[in-house]
Specification:
Elements (H helix, E strand, L loop, with lengths): L2 H10 L9 H11 L8 H23 L3 H4 L3 H21 L5 E4 L2 E4 L1 H36 L4 H7 L16 E3 L6 E10 L11 E3 L10 H8 L8 E8 L9 E3 L2 H18 L12 E5 L2 E7 L1 H10 L2 H8 L2 E7 L9 H8 L8 E4 L4 E4 L11 H21 L2 H22 L8 H22 L3 E3 L2 E5 L3 E4 L9 H4 L2 H6 L3 E4 L12 H13 L10 E3 L5 E7 L3 E6 L4 E4 L10 H13 L12 E7 L2 H9 L9 E7 L8 E2 L2 H17 L1
Parallel strand pairs: 8-23
Antiparallel strand pairs: 1-2, 3-13, 4-14, 4-17, 4-18, 5-10, 6-9, 6-10, 7-8, 11-12, 15-16, 18-19, 19-20, 21-22
Helix pairs in contact: 1-2, 2-6, 3-5, 5-6, 10-15, 13-14, 14-15, 15-18
Keywords: Plastid
Length: 665
């Protein structure tokens, strides 16, 4: 085979995406494979090796009648890289002083220097274009593969089974822990530091159809616990309890309405390949049931607390509960190498991935459940540390700019959680989201047990500094979950007593965070538990008195003789001045805020209509166009989060009465 024939073949074949300019590349190859002034013994030998490689490889392809495929093969790519290496070495030789001559006071390079440099740069451009194309295709492929980790994948794959319930994310704890009272004195305000601050592929999902018998939590743990990793699983349980508890929330859904909504979302997704952002409410109720749990979330943090605190009978009740569904990343499925991970999950490598199960009349999915983790610590950690520094500077200088900056950092951190929990983003992951919120709920519950918290709101609460719980004596038999779920039972228990953390509110200690942290640690020590977060106090919220109502409405009479008020759901005091005045009057008169009917908590406000409002109004035959003012009913009713219900039946009975009040209004 002549070299000229090879160049002729080279000039007529389409080499994209490796080479875009065939003529330029032919010149580059022609120049490179001829003897050159820069060639030393090593480079001459390398040039001859390339010539031999081309002749042997191309002749073999030509004899098999597949010379055209050669230019799209790995053999050609290897030749391409060999040319690059040869030119690179020549370029290095030409830049040495050996090949430079003095002429009229200037440094003049050998004429071949500029030719090689020009050809080498042309080669670099071709190689760069090839790399960009390959990286782009690789990124697109990887992006498509990891889409399976998103919230919507649980919706699409498990719509007809209980696995679809795994896409529900339980919110943070928001509860009035002392609903029978309304007025407290000597108030402190404590918060967790950075409470809400992995890309995974398809997890193992345990799901059931309506005909299948569900396993129990005890059986599930016996079978799978050795495969569970803290933070990488969530279990949905349902069942009755023989005792009262206020730790685990229930996520109540009406199956017919829920699946109707699921089907509507799926139909929209199949027709447009997008999630219905405006109408994605799955119509669920977050409820605190005392003697029953429905779709309650069990994570590593919850499981640890239950095992440490529950009595043997209480733990037996939990183990007998049904596992509605579970989603977890097995320890044995973890893949540490990213490239190996993508090879495993690539559907092209999957054989017999699906099999029809005639017994259950369903399709068994036997695809790999390999997963790969991407720690977020290096991304979130610096943000949390910077926020801590800004908060410290604000306390020292009282410069409002520091406070504004730390609030921005808080917003960024919380937004990251929102993205991870949202069905609108491909990286949304309910396992991670439920573990984040569950850790916050469990820890705020533990903290409130020791400080006798009043209104728990996600990551903090107010408490009376002269009424906190302490161990009276070392417990022989530790109080269980039922006792810790009720302050009144704790007060009557022989092992607990109420004490004052610091008697004088006017001269607060500077190390109050350390004092409270030590107190909480001693309280949790018999249970061998520790808080997962550091705590800090809002000293500006320390108050003489506090008047509170429901889960998030309160007024503080601070030590600085100012009033701080917060009405949950209201952006400004002017939105419902009458409601605020009623609460203030009850505070000043020190009389309970009497609720004659739930209409006391309803009022109208004017808003700008959204597209969602427009869609809803069309269904009611009273069209409200987007962008125009509209009147909307603002509710301040006793929501499911603010009341305790014994079971699901009691909750629906209350909901029916509440709906009657709304209709009458």
């Amino acid at each position: 085979m002549s070299f000229e024939y090879f160049l002729d073949i080279l000039s007529v074949h389409n080499l994209y995406p490796i080479v875009k300019d065939k003529k330029q590349f032919s010149i580059l190859v022609s120049t490179s494979l001829k003897p050159h002034i820069a060639d030393n013994e090593r480079l001459s030998q390398y040039r001859m090796d390339i010539n031999r490689y081309i002749q042997n490889t191309f002749v073999e392809e030509e004899e098999q009648g597949s010379s055209k495929s050669f230019f799209q093969s790995a053999s050609f790519l290897r030749f391409f890289l060999m040319i690059r290496q040869l030119n690179s070495l020549r370029f290095q030789e030409l830049t040495k002083n050996t090949f430079r001559k003095q002429f009229s006071g200037r440094v003049q390079k050998n004429p071949l220097d500029s030719e090689i440099v020009k050809n080498y740069k042309a080669f670099q451009n071709s190689n760069h274009a090839m790399a960009i194309t390959q990286n782009s295709l690789k990124r697109k492929k990887y992006s498509n593969l990891i889409n399976g980790c998103s919230v919507k994948s649980l919706l699409i794959r498990y719509a007809s089974t209980t696995g679809v319930f795994n896409m529900l994310v339980t919110d943070g704890r928001c509860q009035n822990e002392q609903p029978d009272e309304f007025l407290k004195s000597n108030i402190g305000d404590v918060d967790f530091v950075s409470c809400y601050g992995t890309a995974l592929e398809s997890p193992t999902v345990l799901a059931y159809t309506s005909e299948q018998k569900k396993t129990t939590l005890g059986v599930f743990l016996e079978k799978y616990e050795h495969e569970l990793i803290d933070g990488f699983y969530s279990i949905l349980i349902s069942g009755k309890l023989s005792f009262a508890q206020n730790l685990l929330y229930s996520k109540i859904v009406k199956n017919d309405l829920f699946h109707m909504r699921i089907n509507k979302i799926l139909n929209h997704y199949e027709s447009s390949n997008t999630m219905d952002v405006e109408n994605n409410d799955l119509m669920t109720d977050l409820v605190l049931l005392t003697h029953e749990i429905i779709n309650g979330i069990i994570t590593a943090d919850v499981l640890k607390v239950l095992r440490k605190i529950c009595s043997s009978q209480e733990w037996s009740d939990f183990k007998n509960m049904e596992v509605v569904s579970a989603v977890f990343y097995k320890k044995s499925d973890f893949e540490s190498d990213l490239d190996t991970f993508f090879k495993k999950i690539d559907m092209k490598n999957a054989k017999n991935a699906y099999r029809y199960n005639s017994k259950n009349q369903s399709i068994d999915d036997s695809r790999t459940r390999a997963w790969f983790s991407i720690p977020l610590k290096d991304f979130v950690g610096p943000l949390i540390n910077e926020r801590k520094n800004l908060k410290k500077l604000y306390k020292e200088t009282l410069n409002s700019s520091y406070n504004s900056m730390q609030e921005n950092y808080k917003l960024i951190i919380n937004t990251l959680y929102g993205v991870l929990a949202s069905p609108y983003f491909e990286i949304g992951n309910t396992v991670l989201a439920n573990n984040i919120t569950a850790r916050a709920r469990v820890n705020i519950w533990l903290l409130s047990r020791s400080l006798k918290g009043i209104q728990c709101i996600t990551d903090g609460f107010q408490y009376c500094v002269r009424e906190v719980f302490q161990w009276k004596k070392p417990p022989i038999r530790k109080p269980g979950l039922e006792i810790l779920s009720d302050y009144k039972k704790m007060e009557k228990n022989r092992y607990f007593q109420c004490i004052s953390l610091y008697p004088d509110m006017k001269s607060l200690p500077t190390n109050i965070d350390e004092i409270v942290s030590e107190h909480v640690s001693k309280f949790l020590e018999p249970y061998d538990l520790k808080l997962a977060y550091q705590i800090e106090h809002k000293t500006e919220h320390f108050s003489h008195e506090m008047c509170y109502l429901l889960k998030a409405h309160y007024i503080l009479h601070t030590l600085n003789e100012t009033f701080i008020s917060k009405i949950g759901g209201i952006r400004s005091k002017d939105e419902n001045e009458a409601f605020l005045m009623k609460l203030m009057k009850s505070f000043l008169l020190k009389k309970p805020f009497l609720v004659l009917s739930e209409t006391n908590f309803l009022h109208e406000e004017t808003l700008i209509a959204s597209i969602h409002d427009y869609e809803i109004s069309k269904k009611k035959n009273m069209v409200q166009y987007p962008g125009y003012p509209m009147k909307k009913l603002k509710e301040f009713h006793l929501t499911s989060c603010e009341r305790l219900f014994v079971n699901e039946e009691m909750f629906y009975y209350w909901k029916k009465i509440h709906q009657c009040h709304r209709n009458n209004y």
